[in-house]
Amino acid sequence: MDLDLSAIPILDQHCHPLLRDGGGALAPVDYQRFFSESGEAEMHARHAPTTIFFRWALKELAALLRCEPAVEAVLAARARAGADALAGRMFRDANLAMLLVDHGYQTGASYSHAELAMRLPCRLAQILRLETLAQDLIVRHDTFDQVIDAFVATVEEARAAGHVGLKSIVAYRTGLAVSETSRGDAAAAWGPVKERAKRDGRVRLADKPLNDYLVLRALEIAGRQALPVQFHTGFGDGDLDLLTANPLHLRPVIERHRRVPFVLLHASYPYVRELGYLAAIHPNVWADLGLAVPFAAAEIPAVFRQALALAPTSKLLFSTDAYSIPDIFWLAARWGRWGLGTVLEEMVGLGALAANEAMDVAREILGGNAARVYGLPWEAT
Ligand SMILES: [Zn+2]
Known about the structure:
By secondary structure, this protein is α/β, with parallel strands linked by helices. It has 18 helices and nine strands. Bound molecules: zinc ion.
């Protein structure tokens, strides 16, 4: 028996927007790619459907949609429901009460914040993605100084513009070992970056002096404003070097910026125990468990167990890291409650937690802790 946490609302503290109109008519391979972090078409077509994640997801979705547990049947049932109705139904069933949305991903084909707010039965707030901002500014401005001035001004105004936190994907670009970088060193890297931007009309910023310098400037501002900063850590899309995404690389930065609330995303999977350690040592580190929920599927209780080994329960945050389709939000909420309920029930059985204490912990992890970190009003019933 696991604890039933279905009545506890979720504050999903890291996710991305849905695709416009559900992405249109989806073929099986288009749908299967949402269940894989690989960028390889062969993985989406042949291997993603064989994961426990996908096999289990199909059965769960088929039960919700009252159809056969086969990809074609699920896709047909989704199409019959219609994109907006499907999203509304899944979000209500998942009891997702609030989302903190990072729009710096798949911006063109996805709903804007206002469009999302019109469609979803929950509260929304935004997170500002630093690297996307920097890339836009590099394209728009001619000089290094203009870019830095505009970057600093936008980050300074982020809270006033409705963002409740910042996010860095420096792990994807040049790794988490962010080192002290002077303005001069960053300026020296500017020329070739601007050349690429001019040539292509856009730019992927992966030039360590510039990436590190911008992250450090943002951390200084976040420290003054006590603005939470999310960092991608651990696994992710195929262009990630998982070796440099170990959250332990962040330790010097965490220690130097003690007034910044660091939110380390994705359970740092597979470095979950390292993440739990950082959250146990540093008052300014919080551990997010998204993406591992739902991707780790049957192993989700193990993720919670490992995080809870060292991390105080006040330091754990829930998210889905879902994007594009509502199905991933629904599965993450459902399996996240199951995994957390399973582990908390074990703790009750052990005599480590009283039953009411376990429910309090669940309310904090599913929403209360995040509400405090971001300074959001929250009522967990
Ligand atoms: Zn994400």
